[in-house]
């Protein structure tokens, strides 16, 4: 995208010749601007300083690849608990409610990351911030792979959530400002879906073969090590696009020439307050809270539903979660660009309503095969919702608010990814795992409400 550059003209004045007193009076009188001339003076103009979208150079493409690799690792991390929960329950002899605590501490980590993300980048730079985020996730994996007492497993998910919350906020802002933001977000979150597809396959294969479930996290450790190295290199000298501000030009009263007035940089406290007061932040947080609540609830509890209610075999239905994440992957890679052309606002609404319809199919059709297909279709429809929504949020937010606002939106999403599965586990303890479906339907309704209340979208080229 071409940057608009303002031109500043330098006007030089010559020294006037000597005047007689009478000549001086006449000249002074001639220089007085009559009222009509003042009224016809054009208003101050504004010139853009910098465009929002970053150029797609070779290093930018490598950075996009790095965000996709981290997205893959995050998807692997988020999807595998659903396949491992039955084995964790058996190993530790714990209930649905207790095993759900991993979702809670993971959310606490995400929420803690929201106000820290911008500060960490200011202190360390983007490259080092990515290394720190991946190192926090790796530390959590090291704890889990040792198969410690369950309270330490719960604590490890706090570190994982903190690291993932940081790199997710960085990734979303980078991709949203990368040329076609919706497509870049779709590719990055499609990589997340690919990791989500692979995670349950690897986790189920390891746990069902007789190897202790925690050994899966050796794979996760290798992935975060690679991601930390590549992201640190790719983003080492990275400078985020500057806020797209308008620099006004005013007329100097003394010289009559145009003078550029540079705006002052708002403080971090001011930006934080503006971000939290923005209706886009509030509604976006509610939307992603409900979205991720439904996504993680399905991923975490659909296998338990198929085993307890449909009487499926654990070693077979354990792969249904992979179908769900496979649908998410295809949706983000294939449908997201189509949604960009058709318009994200209407497409997101259609996808949410379609997900609701197929959730009813899983609830009321007593067929394991039919349920598995419907779950995959739900993933296909939910897949493009996240990148499309994030692209809309970014277009509605000022550039200097994006990192903070999207950090809180991501934190709210993780909160939904903790609260909804926890509520599902608590209620399932009393009523049965079928409660997954009415909870998800309620979350779809919350998504529709928040989406309809969003402010009108700015033009794509703004």
Automatic annotation (TrEMBL):
GO terms for cellular component: membrane. PROSITE patterns: MFS (PS50850). The keyword Transmembrane helix applies. The chain crosses the membrane at residues 94-117, 129-162, 216-236, 274-294, 314-334, 346-366, 372-394, 406-428, 434-454. It holds the Pfam family MFS_1. Residues 16-54 are annotated as: Disordered. It is found in: Membrane. This is Major facilitator superfamily (MFS) profile domain-containing protein. It comes from Aspergillus calidoustus.
């Amino acid at each position: 995208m071409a940057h608009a550059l303002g031109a500043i003209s330098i006007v030089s004045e010559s020294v006037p010749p000597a005047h007689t007193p009478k000549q001086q009076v006449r000249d002074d009188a001639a220089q007085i601007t009559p009222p009509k001339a003042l009224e016809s003076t054009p208003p101050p103009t504004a010139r853009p300083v910098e465009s929002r979208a970053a150029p797609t150079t070779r290093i930018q493409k490598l950075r996009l690849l790095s965000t996709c690799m981290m997205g893959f690792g995050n998807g692997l991390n988020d999807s595998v608990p659903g396949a491992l929960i039955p084995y964790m329950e058996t190993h530790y002899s714990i209930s649905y409610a207790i095993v759900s605590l991993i979702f809670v501490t993971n959310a606490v980590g995400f929420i803690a990351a929201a106000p820290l993300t911008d500060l960490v980048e200011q202190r360390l730079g983007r490259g080092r911030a990515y290394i720190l985020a991946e190192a926090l996730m790796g530390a959590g994996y090291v704890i889990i792979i040792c198969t410690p007492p369950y309270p330490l497993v719960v604590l490890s998910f706090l570190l994982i959530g903190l690291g993932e919350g940081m790199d997710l906020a960085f990734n979303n802002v980078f991709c949203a400002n990368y040329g076609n933001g919706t497509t870049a977000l779709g590719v990055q979150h499609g990589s997340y879906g690919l990791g989500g597809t692979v995670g349950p396959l690897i986790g189920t294969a390891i746990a069902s073969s007789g190897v202790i479930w925690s050994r899966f996290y050796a794979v996760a450790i290798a992935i975060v090590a690679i991601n930390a190295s590549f992201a640190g290199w790719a983003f080492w000298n990275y400078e985020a696009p500057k806020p797209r501000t308008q620099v006004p030009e005013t007329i100097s009263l003394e010289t009559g020439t145009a003078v550029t007035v540079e705006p002052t940089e708002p403080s971090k406290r001011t930006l934080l307050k503006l971000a939290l007061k923005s209706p886009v932040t509030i509604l976006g947080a509610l939307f992603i809270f409900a979205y991720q609540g439904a996504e993680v609830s399905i991923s975490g509890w659909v296998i338990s539903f198929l085993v307890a209610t449909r009487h499926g075999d654990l070693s077979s239905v354990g792969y249904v979660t992979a179908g769900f994440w496979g649908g998410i992957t295809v949706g983000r890679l294939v449908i997201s660009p189509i949604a960009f052309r058709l318009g994200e606002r209407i497409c997101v609404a259609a996808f949410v309503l379609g997900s609701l319809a197929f959730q009813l199919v899983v609830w009321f059709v007593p067929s394991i095969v039919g349920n598995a297909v419907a779950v995959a279709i739900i993933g296909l429809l939910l897949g493009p919702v996240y990148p499309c929504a994030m692209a809309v949020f970014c277009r509605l937010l000022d550039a200097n608010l994006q990192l903070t606002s999207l950090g809180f939106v991501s934190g709210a999403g993780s909160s939904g990814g903790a609260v909804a599965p926890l509520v599902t586990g608590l209620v399932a303890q009393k009523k049965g795992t079928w409660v997954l479906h009415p909870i998800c339907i309620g979350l779809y309704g919350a998504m529709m409400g928040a989406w309809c209340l969003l402010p009108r979208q700015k033009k794509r080229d703004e």
